[in-house]
Amino acid sequence: MKTSTTKYLIVAVIWIALWELLAFIIGEELLFASPHTVLIALSRLGITLSFWKTILFSILRILSGFILGYILSVILSVLAYRFSFFDAFIRPAISVIKATPVASFIILALMWAGKNYVPVIICILMVTPVVWSNIRVGLQNVDKGLLAMAQVYGMTGMEKVKHVYLPSLMPYNMAAIGSGLGLCWKAGIAAEVICRALPSIGNSIWETKFYLITDEMFAWTAMVVILSVIFDKLTKMLIEKFSPKKGVAK
Questions:
Q1: Which residues of the chain have a pLDDT value below 50?
Q2: How does DSSP assign 9-64, residue by residue?
């Protein structure tokens, strides 16, 4: 564990050094802020109440969209697994969502809903195809031998879900959460930038671009990356902690 931590620290230092070198070569803070300048900007923003209020509202929008999209996706994938007609029916819609540019969805959502709800809608749309695909494949690959053994033991439907389906779906679920959360943060912040939800990280990024405050733009972007990593790790830790172990023994 200690060796792994040291390795990641060394990698982080190398990347920061490369960032500093690139900023030095460009030589123009207005175009490309250096790490120490971004750290100063982040410290300056961090002492203000509005900074944390903005972060809180963006977190609530993005996590709300992810949770709603995740629940919807799981329901759709289970229905597609159980009913072949529903699987054929929902596949074109999933394909359309995957193929349509995010900007088009943002503009359409802005026409239908208030600007503060647009990021939530976009997160739902972005996470649905990812989670649906992973859970659907996971359900198809559940060990038929375990299902047969569960039948022999006389397990109820809920016991099969707990002891067979959920453990078997774990790798697919983890992959879906990792990809889905990452997409939610990127698409959600993009939606905030375009629709200028208030208060939001996206609107703050737009303002730094409008007023050419490059160091703060980098600082807000760094916060998005940090938050994305934190919530990805926390979510996976919680799932691993509370997930049932694979097996059919009663």
A1: 247-250
A2: HHHHHHHHHHHHHHHHHH--TTTS--HHHHHHHHHHHHTSHHHHHHHHHHHHHHHH
Other CB atoms within a 10 A radius of the CB of residue 218 amount to: 24
Which amino acid type is present at position 35? P
Structure tokens, 38: 């971004």
Cβ neighbours around 102 below 10 Å, total: 17
pLDDT in tens, 128-181: 999 999 999 999 888 888 778 877 777 787 878 788 888 888 888 888 888 899
Which amino acid, residue 61?
R
How far apart CA 219 and CA 223 sit, in angstroms, is 6
Q: What is the pTM of this model?
A: 0.86
Residue 141 structure tokens: 């690959």
The distance of Cα 67 from the centroid of its chain, to the nearest Å, equals 10
| Rg of the chain in Å (alpha carbons) | 22
Look at residue 249 in the predicted model and tell me its pLDDT. 44
